[in-house]
Write a structure and sequence with these properties.
By secondary structure, this protein is α/β, with parallel strands linked by helices. The chain folds into two domains: about 200 residues, TIM Barrel; about 210 residues, Hypothetical protein af1432, CATH 1.10.3210.10. The chain contains 16 helices and nine strands. Strands 8-7-6-5-4-3-2-1-9 form a nine-stranded mixed beta sheet.
């Protein structure tokens, strides 16, 4: 089994006057070389950090629940912030390479009303920044020598904007820190305290995040078709697969689809749930062997068929548990994390973690069948459903295997 793609990110501490961590600045990296990569634009770096780290892993985990400073230079990305990250413990850094100050100012004013805070990075006294200064919570200065240049500028800014907090970067000696502290600087950053610390985590690409998000929506009792359509419409690959699935379902009588919405409605709730869950295994686990995906499909379908006598709701719950039980391996994620991410109820979590109840028993039987351990399957069956003959389980297993082959061929073909 191949290893998941590794995503790199660095963080550097920002300390207060008592040398306690106030925040971390998050810095994009594309390898274990702890430096900003050559040939990567600010926009690319910010976008990759957002999709691959901030959203997937979570801001609070990356900064250990401290405040996070994040660099931004692109107004389009800035406009998307409210859809991606909440304003709590977040400072958006406007970098010195930013252009179109007038447009930037309009966005900053709007986001300030939504409680977002801003820092102006590497302030250089250029008059073009003056319209932005009243809306900044922080201004970051690079330490200059003689140090009096930096302290004079810091005092001037504090005098003009009393609520402004000054952050000084590139501090390398205790003498510099002590001098700046006595001059009234609020926050401190530099190699004197700590070099950027490298963090790594498994990576899920942006398109897979859409699938991940869609999978979460299937855990709700009723699908929101408009929400599903909106998510699918943002991904060309998903759109193509939905239309392909419509063709597969309509057989020789091909259905002409005029919109994604029409395709979604045509497929219906049950098919969409199946489609999304299969995509979760095939797309999220693209670097895993396809056999793992098929095991998940077989396991899910077996549980659905086995539990069908208990009603549609029980069968659907069994299908979801079957998928969730394999999703941990697909994402290199332990089951406790899977349960937390998808907000599974106590019955489902009990079945996954402890094989509790009929749901847990069905899962154990499915796993025994995968191992070709029919003696164990028969023993578990006698405990959870004594009246059911083992011969019927053979039949369900064969149906599940055929189902997995057929569905996987449609979705991944």
């Amino acid at each position: 089994m191949t290893k998941p793609v590794t995503q790199f990110i660095a963080r550097q501490a920002i300390l207060d006057a008592s040398k306690q961590i106030f925040a971390y600045e998050l810095l994009y990296r594309d390898s274990d070389n702890n430096a900003f990569p050559v040939g990567v634009t600010d926009e690319q770096a910010t976008g990759r950090m957002f999709f691959n780290s901030l959203i997937l892993v979570g801001k609070d985990k990356l900064v250990a629940n401290h405040c996070a400073f994040i660099n931004l230079s692109d107004t389009t990305l800035l406009q998307e912030i409210p859809r991606l990250l909440k304003p709590d413990n977040l400072v958006l850094e406007i970098v010195e390479r930013s252009q179109n100050i007038e447009e930037l100012l309009a966005i900053v004013k709007t986001l300030r009303k939504q409680n977002y805070k801003f820092a102006l990075d590497d302030y250089d006294k250029d008059p073009r920044w003056e319209p932005l200064l009243p809306y900044m919570s922080y201004v970051k200065l690079e330490l200059e020598h003689p140090i009096l240049k930096t302290t004079t500028l810091a005092k001037k800014l504090k005098r003009l904007y009393p609520k402004l907090k000054i952050v000084v970067e590139r501090i390398e000696t205790y003498e510099d820190f002590n001098y700046l502290q006595q001059a009234g600087v609020d926050l401190f950053q530099g190699y004197f305290f700590a070099k950027p610390e490298m963090l790594t985590h498994g990576n899920v690409e942006p398109s897979k995040l859409v699938v991940f998000d869609l999978l979460k929506s299937t855990t709700r009792p009723n699908l929101n078709f408009k929400e599903i359509e909106s998510k699918i419409a943002k991904d060309l690959s998903l759109t193509a697969r939905v239309l392909k699935l419509v063709n597969a379902h309509s057989g020789l009588d091909k259905q002409e689809m005029k919109s994604i919405s029409q395709a979604v409605v045509y497929l219906g709730e049950d098919t969409l749930r199946q489609f999304i869950r299969v995509l979760a295994l095939s797309d999220l686990g693209v670097d895993k062997p396809s056999e793992l995906t098929k095991f998940g499909l077989m396991r899910a379908q077996f549980m659905s068929l086995f539990l069908a006598p208990g009603g549609k709701e029980m069968a659907e719950q069994g299908y979801l548990i079957g998928l969730m039980s394999i999703l941990g391996a697909v994402l290199d994620m332990d089951l406790n994390t899977v349960i937390s991410e998808f907000s599974l109820d106590s019955n489902s979590s009990g079945a996954l973690l402890n094989y509790d109840g009929l749901l847990g028993g069905a899962l154990k039987i499915a796993m025994a069948i995968e191992e070709n351990n029919w003696q164990a399957a028969e023993s578990i069956l006698a405990e959870v459903r004594p009246a059911t003959p083992i011969s019927s389980i053979f039949e369900l297993a064969e149906q599940s295997r055929t189902y997995a082959d057929d569905v996987f061929a449609v979705v991944s073909g």
